[in-house]
Amino acid sequence: MIQLFPGMQASRPTNVRMAAGRQAAALGMVATLVLASTPGSAAEHVISREQLHQAVAETQTNSRANRSEIMQAFGSSQAKAALSSAGIEYQQVEQAVATLDEESASKLAERARAFNKDFAAGAFNNQMLTYIVIALATAIIVLIAV
């Protein structure tokens, strides 16, 4: 116990008040240090709203382009016939492509671009086209199942 005057001891409530005061002072000091060490003001953000909006818009544009490229690979009448011969409906592929995550869509879009380029150049016969379309569709459906 703390002695206020010789022969007198402080009562318990005084000790509690002093401890609470010390805790409040310590909390105030910590808050001051934290606020003083924070660079910039609270209203200043690391990235502006405009930059964030632009990044989201770019991501959406890339996503749409990737999905469009994938669906273009299945859009020809020969590709639809190949899907049908494998028992896969075009709508199944369309729904599966819509649910792909961004990374998977990006990887498949790369393959679809190469396929579309070669298909346009006439590099595939009907049998090759059938195998490739079935493999792409199967990959998409498997990716969705995982």
Question: Would you write up a description of this structure?
Answer:
The protein has 146 residues and is mostly helical. The protein has 6 helices and no strands. The chain is 74% helix and 0% strand. It is elongated and about 85 Å long.
The shape is elongated
Q: In terms of structural class, how would the helical and strand content be classed?
A: mainly alpha
Q: Which percent band covers the strand fraction?
A: under 5%
Low-confidence stretches: 1-5, 8-14
> What is the number of helical segments per DSSP (H or I, 4+ residues)?
6
* Oligomeric status: single chain
Give average pLDDT, whole number. 79
Sheet with the most strands, sense and barrel status: none
Radius of gyration from the CA trace? 33 Å
- Element pattern in H and E: HHHHHH
Quick summary:
This protein is an all-alpha fold and 146 residues long. It is 74% helix and 0% strand.
Describe the secondary structure blueprint for this structure.
Layout: H1 12-37, H2 49-73, H3 77-85, H4 90-98, H5 102-120, H6 126-145
Helix pairs in contact: 2-5, 3-6, 4-6, 5-6
Which key features would you list for this structure?
single chain; 146 residues; mainly alpha; 6 helices; elongated; disordered N terminus
